[in-house]
Amino acid sequence: MEYSCRKKKTKREEFLEIMEEIIPWEEWVGLIRPYYPEGKRGRPPIDLELILRMYLLQVWFNLSDPGTEEAIYDSYAMRKFTGINFITDSVPDETTLCNFRHLLEKHGLSKLFFEAINRVMVETGHIMKGGTIVDATIIDAPSSTKNAEKKRDPEMHSTKKGNQWRFGMKCHVGVDAGTGYVHTIEVTPANVHDVTVCSELLREDDEVVYGDSGYLGIEKRPEVANDEHLSSIDYRINLRPGRFPKVSDNAIDWTRYIEKRKSSVRCKVEHIFRIIKCQFGYRKVRYRGLKKNENRLYAMFACANLYLLAMAERIPQAA
């Protein structure tokens, strides 16, 4: 009764209401069901949709297993999202959530979520064909050796960006050039150059590819030059600013105009990175190893695509 008299909703509650509407719960539960314990022996398993909602809260708010359990006890919005009633129910403990997360990682179910969402978005026309934007972002990992093994994560590596050395992994994405939704993800150590992964981010029907200066020379790569389809693509890669020719004050600077037009298309990829790093708070890896973090990224990008879709449909209503 006290909460029903509030005059304002929190941003967390508004966000959870959006995700409640947009997530295809029945489909995702159906994908997990064949791998989930049936409860024929031992204690009955936790309701599948409840533990899935708990896992998604962990993904969206970048929480640990015990942190997720405590957050549901502490937050009314999260408890409402999971549908838990403290009079009759209890929150699944951190061990149950950890086991469920390992189940998703073992069978690659988060990737199935991502692919299922993309299939529907292609059928409905929300993901178009013919053009891709490629880009990559570095996700930092702890560089400290103050742990039991006295060493860093062996699957993560260091790379230099600008004048700063960074240690972690790199997330490469292929984004639809028309709408900005992610259609392909690749995860590598941070020292893998962007251009070496570019061919794996392209679709069979792509005719145009946009990218920043890190993808210069993609046409000369053997995997591109020796492939009939990849070699026929129009690669519209931004030049480095130092390569811009000098023009007089009275002349039209066509090079800068063309580069600006390329960037106006390529900037769509930054929107999805903003959701992952700012909205979901995933600036640093949560687990050791690439596979676990890749599983989390597939779940994040599936939800990020749905969140972008929901926000795009709400803009005309707000206007």
List keywords for this structure.
single chain; 319 residues; alpha/beta; Nucleotidyltransferase, domain 5; 2 domains; 6-stranded mixed β-sheet; 13 helices; 14% strand
In words, what does this structure look like?
The chain has 319 residues and is α/β, with parallel strands linked by helices. It folds into two domains: 3-107, no CATH class; 128-318, Nucleotidyltransferase, domain 5, CATH 3.30.420. It is 45% helix and 14% strand. It has 13 helices and six strands. It has helices at residues 11-22, 25-32, 48-60, 65-74, 76-82, 94-107, 109-123, 194-197, 222-225, 228-231, 254-266, 268-279, 290-318, and strands at residues 131-140, 157-161, 164-176, 182-189, 208-211, 234-237. Strands 1, 2, 3, 4, 5 and 6 form a six-stranded mixed sheet that branches. Strand 3 (164-176) and strand 4 (182-189) form a beta hairpin. Helix 3 (48-60) packs across helix 4 (65-74), helix 3 (48-60) crosses helix 6 and helix 4 (65-74) packs across helix 6 (94-107). The longest helix has 29 residues, at 290-318. It is globular and about 75 Å long. The relative contact order is 0.13. The mean pLDDT is 89.
